[in-house]
Amino acid sequence: MKGKITDNNESVGVDESVQEYLDLMLTRATEDPAAQVEMPPLATDSSTHSVSETVSKMPSSSGMTAQITETAKTEKGMAFKQAAIPQGGILQETISEETTPQKTIPRRRRKDKLLIDVGHKSHEPVSPRDNTISEALKPIAPMAAASTTKPFAEPAASLKINMALPEVKADPQRKEAKADETVLSRPQVSFPRDRVPESVNKTPEVVAKTVAKHTAEPAPVIDDVKETAANITDAVSESQKIEPSVWLANGRPVWAQERFECLLFRVGGLTLAVPLAELGTIYPYDEDVTSLFGQIDWFLGLLTVKDINIRVVNTAKVVMPERYQETMKDNLKNVISISGVDWGLAVDSVSDSILLDPEDIRWRGQRSKRPWLAGTVIEHMCALLDVSQLAIMFLEQDRQRSH
Amino acid sequence: MATSTDKNVEDPMLQWVTFRLDGETYGINVMQVQEVLRYTEIAPVPGAPHYVMGIINLRGNVVTVIDTRHRFGLPTADITDQTRIVIIEADNHVVGILVDAVAEVVYLRQSEIETAPNVGNDESAKFIQGVCNKNDQLLILVELDKLLTDQEWTEVEEI
After folding, report:
1. How far B121 CA sits from the closest chain A CA (Å)?
2. A312 torsion bin: left (phi>0), alpha (psi -120 to 50), beta (else)
3. Cβ separation of B118 and A307 shorter than 8 Å?
């Protein structure tokens, strides 16, 4: 405790006088265990201290109202009058008039009393009435305590904040922005100044979650062959992406706005046409196609070509399942790969390539059924296939890729 | 600068025992293969599941033999001199699988293994772990742990 008590009883500073007043109050409380004194808040202006003014501002909750009969002055020494605290169950304490520091209790004695009050296990026994001393030493409860707000109560509905993860907005100026880059920014929240919603405290958690989400996972340790074999990656398949054909308002796909070349082929007695731009390479269909068990019936197997495994499709089974016969499989001679994917169409034979005008084709308007059928080539009376839609169907069927 | 040790850690070399089945070559993890037996008489067990061919006596131990063709949805075939019974350990169970022939042990790097298409509704497609091109041949790698379900493993144990 601060404050000096000079031997010659000289006056002390104003702040020190206030402190001494407080000490006196505490001392009185410790000396008389039945006493309870409500400490008024200190005035901001340390030069003058009016207890009455302070008391008038004190809350009247729980009946704890101290009534100071006389005004205390702190210019020189402390002069206090009796402070009566009328309330049930709480003994009243009278503050004796203190004019000179001489009557203050020595500091060491005050300290000992305080140690007892705070539960210090000294050699002195603590009387049951000492419990009230600790109660007296409790600071004045703030006004906000009178509210019914619970520590972790949910904020008001009007103050609830949507704490979704911050969105990643592409910066047009950054040409090389990474796809997985995330800008961690605190969401902008506005709330009334007089109330601080508890939900604000949730912000660090959200940020922490975001950080944890984007923290790189530790590299897996390869313990045995089982775990190693399970982590099979397909670099080729992961890079395969195909976009569906965009059909314009004129009822034609983008690739058929002008003249375009088509390849004619036959399968199962049917002539089909495919845009040449969407095709890859033509391979021979032979016994090198490796069948896989447990696959769908239109999947013939894998054709290995230069370390690339082409997934061969039974074209006749796909385009005309109602007319398909197993004997048709014997006539397959070629595999036409689709550009951009590892899928190929098994066909009987490949004919010529022709140049078509968009006007030479009767385009399909509604393509809810058989979306891979683009239209009919009028002159050749053959179906025109939308290869991209075929590829999308194949990829969707591949459940591993869809995960 | 990546060392050879780092490369082995990043792309380990795996060993696979290959066998023939219905004209195709399959591979299984060498760590799961206990031994390879010549074909011996398999005693059928009444009331056994349809994927069980029967049991054999292996040095006093009864080992259940699984019909691999039936399990993979392949047509049945006759027994030949090349037919073998591969004793494997899968999912803490020891069973035998009947194959047309056992080929060799191949060394494959993890990077050489590609994912196989999975466009079928048949449950047997789940056995395929991946495919790999080796020596101008396509190997179909089989995941033995998925050979049987937990319930089926229980049924096999009760034979």
Report:
1. 7
2. beta
3. no
